[in-house]
Amino acid sequence: MNPTEFKNQYEKWRLEVESSIEKYLPAKKTRPSVIHEAMLYSMQAGGKRIRPILLIAASDMLGQTQDPMPACVAIESLHTYSLIHDDLPCMDDSDMRRGRPTCHKKFGETMALLAGDALLTHAFFLLSDSYKSNAKIANGLVLDLSDAASSQKLIGGQVEDILNERSGTMTAENLKFIHDNKTAALITSAVTMGVRLSEKCTDETLKYASEMGLKIGLAFQVIDDILDATADSETLGKTAGLDAKHGKMTYITLYGLEGARKIAAELSQDAIALCDKIGSNNAFMKALINYMLNRIN
């Protein structure tokens, strides 16, 4: 797939995700309007929509037999909930997200907290309602997303991040646990949820999809660490340099900039190699993995 073909396909799917967000979330005027305004404010803040695009690309590898858009909005709802909560003063205390004031800066801490809660809940309503005609698929999607968001994965990784940061006892092993769960678990679920949307999905396919998603997720986090250390806030669309400000251990502090770049490249190549084990229609997925890696170049 050449760069123009990739860019056009990416943009087509991204725009479909954007229109689906408005379709599958309550309208701003729905009572109580303030909570729905806050939900949509954060959900419509833009961004690259990496997780929904990964989900569509994964479903496309096998040939999707279900509409991926409700699942895309569900995973983006859950991701956005986690960002709203991460930005709160009790967590990372961030003022900017996706190039605009964070939810709590716009609506206050109470409404931001509730908007996050509402998006988390809505994600599972959307999956169970949209795919109720196929119980196996609906159950699998809910299983993947709830597992990724659980106290042992996304939330567990956040807990250990906070505890290690406050105690000053971060180790390489702890950092890997945090990134495996806080970041990579949700990205892994994007890939596994995508392949579940095809009737060709098998247990073996899910195994390879999970392995690939983990590689992509870890590469994504390493790249994020690199960007936090090298890019400015305008480029990132969020407050840059927070890792250094909070004294966080990152792949940069552990392995240096060049070492981190090498790790990201190796993980990305491993993920690309797994594409062929999942499905033959994988040109976009391979290009997407390279696109994510090239954000640091």
Describe the protein's architecture and organization.
There is one protein chain. This protein is an all-alpha fold and 297 residues long. Helices cover 74% and strands 1% of the residues. The protein contains 14 helices and two strands, in the order ααααββαααααααααα. The protein has a two-stranded antiparallel sheet.
List keywords for this structure.
single chain; 297 residues; mainly alpha; Farnesyl Diphosphate Synthase; 14 helices; 2 strands; 74% helix; globular
Question: Can you lay out the helices and strands and say which pair or pack?
Answer:
Blueprint: H1 3-24, H2 33-43, H3 50-62, H4 69-87, E1 96-97, E2 100-101, H5 103-107, H6 109-130, H7 135-148, H8 154-167, H9 172-196, H10 203-230, H11 233-236, H12 242-245, H13 251-278, H14 283-293
Antiparallel strand pairs: 1-2
Helix pairs in contact: 1-4, 2-6, 3-4, 3-9, 3-14, 4-6, 4-9, 6-7, 7-9, 8-9, 9-10, 10-13, 13-14
The gist of it:
The chain is mostly helical. The protein has a single domain, classed as Orthogonal Bundle (Farnesyl Diphosphate Synthase). 74% of the residues lie in helices and 1% in strands.
Q: Kindly, what is the distance between the CA atoms of the first and last residues, rounded to a whole number of angstroms?
A: 20 Å
Largest sheet: 2 strands, antiparallel
> Which shape, going by the Cα principal axes?
globular
What Rg, in angstroms, do the CA atoms define? 18 Å
Which strand order spans the largest sheet, edge to edge or round the barrel?
1-2
Task: Please provide the ordered H/E string of secondary-structure elements.
Answer: HHHHEEHHHHHHHHHH
Structural class: mainly alpha
Count of beta strands: 2
Enumerate the spans where pLDDT stays under 50 for 5 or more consecutive residues: none
| CATH level-4 homologous superfamily | Farnesyl Diphosphate Synthase
Strand content: under 5%
User: Portion of residues in helices?
Assistant: over 70%
Average residue-wise pLDDT: 92
What would CATH call the class? Answer: Mainly Alpha
CATH architecture: Orthogonal Bundle
Estimate nothing, just give the exact number of structural domains.
1
CATH topology: Farnesyl Diphosphate Synthase
Total number of helices: 14
